[in-house]
Amino acid sequence: MLSSELTSYFAQACLLPCSQSQWTPGICGCSLRQTDVTHAFSVAFFVLPLQQYVALVRSLKAPLPHHAVVSPLFTITTRMRRTLLCLTRSCTKPSALGTSVHPFSSPIMKVARVTAWGSPPEYISAPDLPPPSPTQLQLRVVAVGVPRAVRGRASGQHPSAKGAALPFDPSIDGVGRDDATGELYFINSLAAPLFAERANVERSQLMKLPAGADPVAIAGLSNPTGSSYMALRCRAIGGCAGRTVAILGATSASGRIAAMVARQLGATRVIGLARNEATLAAVEGLDVRVCLRDPLIIPDDLGPVHIVIDYVGGPAAVQLLQALQPPPGENLQYIVVGGLAGYERMDLPMRLINVKPIILMGSGKGSLSQADFDREMPGLVNTLAKMGRTLDVLAVPMADIQSVWDSEEVQTKRMVIVP
């Protein structure tokens, strides 16, 4: 509780309607000096819990004297700095006409949040950000991709969303701009909530983009590009330079990009496998195209394969493992990245594993370490910057996210949220 003296200060100086347009020593007809008011706020700051203090100040019926909020005492501790920001950022200064408006309207910014699992994110208001810490940079969010993983997080089904509370930001990564310098940065996975106008991000989670980079393209393609890039750089033993890479699911967005990534990383031959022959024919960067049949028929002249990137899974994956042959004396490295076929299991015959040198592995958050991501992010970002808009990207204003989320248009395009 406040002392009687402090209560009197607030009653006289703050809680009564003020007929004055400016704060003066004779405010509200009483004889309080400016130092008295400042002292009252300083004492209240130390006496009351933070939330009660902020609530008290926001309940004032008269404009608050600027000197009372910006007391030097408020710069001593982190708690004081937080409160100072909370109060001063919401103050409305007297206009040129000398009139004052009650200063404590809460500072806000626009965000998109899932408010019910399985429903599209809603465009809502949220409290503004605190100032960034010395290890952080506050960025204006420019573009945020919406790959399958983001939709999985929005539904609550993705492992990274298990146990999360509502409202929830399902974003993963994106691109932001430093307003002070104009420089663009790629923001690493889960470094900050990005369905927002601004984000405070640890500097260690930022990668500066080269001049001329397309932020919308990078945000839209980071997830599909990263899947094959990390698989070939971190999971494939010995990399793919000078080798043959086969892509199961080559007509998917990730599969199309995987062909280009394999080329950039030095693969000498790239084989694409998919069910739709016409769509497969349009995929760029492939040396050989194999249409999936049941049973799978591999051309006799296909030759040995070093690495397989599998985006499909299920029976097609088993048939491919049975049909492909590795180079003499080497292993067939089979990297499972996705499961577009929808199967939870891959049933491999024991004999297949016994008679063929196969290394079966996955590539994803669980199989890749943070050190892997830290090491490879510069190369991945540079690869993204060089690729441009290799897929059809749809830029959607964040204000329209709820109406566009499940629209037909986003079924065939890479959706990117533009705050």
Automatic annotation (TrEMBL):
SUPFAM superfamilies per the UniProt record, alphabetical: GroES-like, NAD(P)-binding Rossmann-fold domains
GO molecular function, one term: oxidoreductase activity
UniProt-listed InterPro entries: GroES-like_sf, NAD(P)-bd_dom_sf, Zn-ADH-like_protein
Coiled coil: none
Official protein name in the record: Alcohol dehydrogenase-like C-terminal domain-containing protein
Organism, scientific name: Aspergillus terreus (strain NIH 2624 / FGSC A1156)
